[in-house]
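Chapter summary example: a protein plus protoporphyrin IX containing FE.
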Amino acid sequence: MTDSLPSPPDGAAPPACPARGTAVRLSGLAYQQTPEQLYRTLRRDHGPVAPVLLDNDIPAWLVLGYNEVSYVTGNDELFARDSRRWSQWDHIPPDWPLLPYVGYQPSVLFVEGAEHQVRAGAISDALDAVDQMELASLCQDIGYALIAGFAGSGQAELMTTYAHQVPMRAIVQLCGMPAGGLDTEELVRDLRLSLDAHEGEDPVAAYGRVQARIEQLVKERRAAPGDDVTSRMLLHPAGLTDEAVVQDVITIIAAAQQPTANWIGNSLRLLLTDDRFATTVAGGKLSVGQALNEVLWLDTPTQNFIGRWAARDTQLGGRQIKAGDCVVMSFAAANTDPGVWPDGHVGAENSSHLSFSNGEHRCPFPAPQLADVIARTAVETLLEQLPDVVLGVEAHELRWRPSIWMRGLGTLPVIFTPVLH
Ligand code: HEM
């Protein structure tokens, strides 16, 4: 987990790292299973901003402090989004696993200033037209159909067959893909592969397949606009190009599907493994809403976000940050910062966590509300349809995915009394 820095291969120039010799790798299975241990060690050894190594031992700063993450997100001219500023590009190979979401794309994620305001504004307008009651009803129908597919067997693996499916199906329909008209299974799989560096598949190729599917969608909606997010973006007064809409619809789908799927999965895990919620499944003490909120504090789906790039030399958390350094925001570490919660009691009752980030590039209005509708409906529908559902393995056997970005389970096996429809 906390491997020390290796010697560079013969002849290879080591990447420059201000804290060389003390950086730790932010990857590997051990890290994924118990990231909070690594955060504790890093805080103890380095304070709120720690030197880390990304894949291929590329150096970056991990921001662990609540105040420091807030400072980074609140100062977007200093800690900026355009990754072309990075001083490490000469060391990054073309098949670098984190490339799909770190390499510059002309999408809302990477553009800055006035252009970002226009693009993010168009996204907010397009999402704001979504009727949240209709969305809840759509998610309920999707949930019913998915559950009907496995209810008779008395067992299911909920990550693949449910948690990833509900948000994916909901969001592709919101974006104007006819239900069943596109191979959503493959889209879900490719999105997952594009974020997981260690599944033995090529994340860059997976991202390319996602892009090709969305290009097709934009072509279709341009020819025949409908009442959907993609058409609203194409028709928005901002006059976005097709290329911009392709980029931003990919961003919307990826940004919605993966975190919301893991929000559902992590909340189901909490409900099924924690005694405080055990009676809730049968109609007891703590609510689904409390589980959803607690997950945002303690097992937040977007555990780390890469990132921001320093626009000039500066300081952060007592560290000298050089222009062109990469700053990775650890929302997971910030949410449990002992400086903010000295007694270890994180603020599960409120929503001042950083799980949707902050500042110009935060998860745009009203995406967090839509995600809440999708996640809440998915969890409630499952518990309502399978009231005696329990975990199919021991809690300690559950494994987290090897993704630096996402905190999510690989599988969530459950058993229940078979339901014959
Ligand atoms: C309907 C569901 C969702 C949609 C449509 C959505 C959309 C987006 C979009 C378009 C961005 C890019 C914003 C920008 O760069 O200006 C974004 C960023 C982000 N979203 Fe969401 N999102 C959804 C759900 C979620 C969920 C469930 C979480 C986590 C619990 C989340 C966390 C984030 C974070 C951390 C960022 C990065 C912000 C930053 O760079 O500071 N999102 N989201």
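Key point: The chain has 16 helices and eleven strands.
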